[in-house]
Amino acid sequence: MDNIESAGYAENSMNTVTLAMHGSIAVITIDNPPVNALSLSVRQGLVEAIEVADRDPHTSAVVIACDGRTFIAGADIREFGKPPEQPWLADVVERLEDATKAVIAALHGSTLGGGLEVAMGCHYRIATAAAVVGLPEVKLGLLPGATGTQRLPRLAGVERALDMMLSGNPIAASDALDAGIIDRIAGGDDLLAAAIEFASEMTGNGPRRVRDLPVPAADSDVFVAIRKKIVAKTRGLLSPEKIIQCVEAATQLSYTDACQVERDLFMECKDSPQSSGLRHAFFAERGVAKIPGIEKTAPTRDIQKISVLGAGTMGAGIAYNCLIAGYTVHLLDSDDAGLDRGKTMLRSLYEGGVKRGKISAAGAREGLHHLTTSTSYNEVADADLVIEAVFEDMSIKKDVFAKLDEVCKQGAILASNTSTLNIDEIAAATSRPQDVIGLHFFSPAHIMRLLEIVRGDKTDDDVIATSLALAKRLGKIGVVVGNCFGFVGNRMLYPYGRENQLLLLEGAAPEYIDKVLFDWGMAMGPNAVGDLAGLDVGYKARHARTDLPDDPRFYRVADMLVEQGRLGQKTGRGTYLYESGSRIPTPDPAVQTMINEEATRLGIDQRDIEAEEIIDRCIYSLIIEGARILEDGIAIRSSDIDVIWTNGYGFPRHRGGPMHYADSIGLDRVYDKVCEFQKRFGSQYWEPPKLLQTLAAKNGQFGA
Ligand code: 3H9
Fold first, then answer.
1. pLDDT for res 11
2. Cβ of 121 less than 6 Å from ligand 1
3. Same domain, 557 and 519
4. What residues act catalytically?
5. Ligand 1 centre and the CA of 282: distance in Å?
6. Of 415, 476, 630, 701, which residue is least crowded by CB atoms under 10 Å?
């Protein structure tokens, strides 16, 4: 292998792109860890290298490959917040395609976004069998902006291309081969050798340019149908509609004109607050694993067997989650009836998994083989991790942990799935508080991605590191939080729910509040959520507290509903009515009458309340509690709070999370609004936190 310095190129200034000869094949290699993103130096290096290879008389064909764990995983997302620098990626792609010699992309790992656009600018594509390819830009509020919206329909057809770009999900190499996106799957395990061989074969064929392929015909019905299909899912998101417009342009305009449409719409998306929110969410989720004082490589404890205590909905969901992640699981309940319920639920979760194609029938049978159940603690003795999911009651939890302390082997991790209770008090029931941690799963446990990892005062670092690794293996995002009532998520839920409850008394109908917040982007309105979760859950938690505000309006409506046996969906009646077996809420005039009468009794003058006030009071109450959580050191950083609310509480991801949302509107404006609410509604709930005041005064941000 020779460098072709004689031809004027060996490597670019940042060493991210190199060019070397393998016989007459020029191999351009990108090495830009961790994911070979298309940073400025890579774009420059690619242009320089292709120029050299193209004019070198000894070069017959060119291979583009990547070092490290993946081919190019996309544009460098960190550059999107900065002024763009030339060469633009679209020009790089065009330059590769303009080459007069065959250019072959050799794909391994994840070829995503701009990476696939580069590959589609090459004349041929070969991939390893394990490679995946996709255009995930939509997940970042973007569209494929380097000719991807024009190239993919030419290769894969309009409908397949729309499906890939609107879902953002990658597809396997074998599917990409079927769809015509790649030309060959490398047989052995030496991708480079296979790519060089492919290049030698293609030398005689020369370039085959995707832009010269026709766009397969698609009539307008295709676009009508796809818009209809995605409308409910995309709810006000900008980029899915723009992606459709780009593909429509591909079917109607010349390649050059349609590329201009793509360019303009890409810039609109890139500069939108939605994309900024989604990009923030992307990096925030990758930031959570960075725990000050605990290295990513910190030692962890070996977890093979997990005991789950409590075979209720939550316990069975956690057990299922652990089983499909490949752990050996033991499920314990106090009686056989409880265990039977848990086993039935586990079986039906497996059946659902098989039906949805998430797991094979053989996999389901195999999974159930790794499950044991018992009503005795003896089987817990050799568990590496115990996850307690019994009633949310401190005295019961203390009894359980005292028992675990007696029976569990030394070094076992003892975790509580408490959603609110003091983890240090639970740990104090054992002689080994260093092994105790909170693992707060969200319901349904096998679906919700969030895991709040609650570190106690004495929790060992390796217990935290093990919990983070466990979250990853369970397919979850683990966020380490401190110990206080409700931790981060539920602590913030209190003021949010409180404002909803006050708004009800002040005259806003439940269905109106829910619609306003749903339209703003929340997955569900707070009243529908309360009915789904069960109003008794919050009731019990509130009534176990001794520090509630002295305010007869505080969660008054929810308390009355529970006291009337209206617990939510499970009783067919909560804030709303539910027909038997239905989850669709119907407003109940009797509830409205009850609220109105209670408002009169409490001396509250009901009024018309604008949507803006509902949004501001609910969302700003979240923000100021988030600020207090930061002041108290309960969250490590504000973006962790955002991850919790976007993944556990249905906060719209395109708004980034409550703290990013506050940063995006400006903390001075947030502070002014909080002061206005303080004047209107009093200091009991609207005292601006010091942190907000300080940051607002210096034009700062929570996320700075
Ligand atoms: C695009 O291409 C637009 C174009 O169409 C048009 C342009 C004009 N940039 O996820 P991981 C970092 S939009 C910068 O933990 P994994 C990430 O932050 C882009 N950085 O690894 C993390 O850093 P740190 C379309 C990036 O193995 C580290 O890499 N492409 C980028 O679990 C490891 O990441 C995408 O949306 C990036 N593009 O998963 C793909 N990607 O260690 C986005 C990653 O400091 N990326 N980083 O925390 C992914 O989906 C996953 O990272 C991937 C690897 C599957 C590749």
1. 61
2. no
3. yes
4. 117, 137
5. 8
6. 701
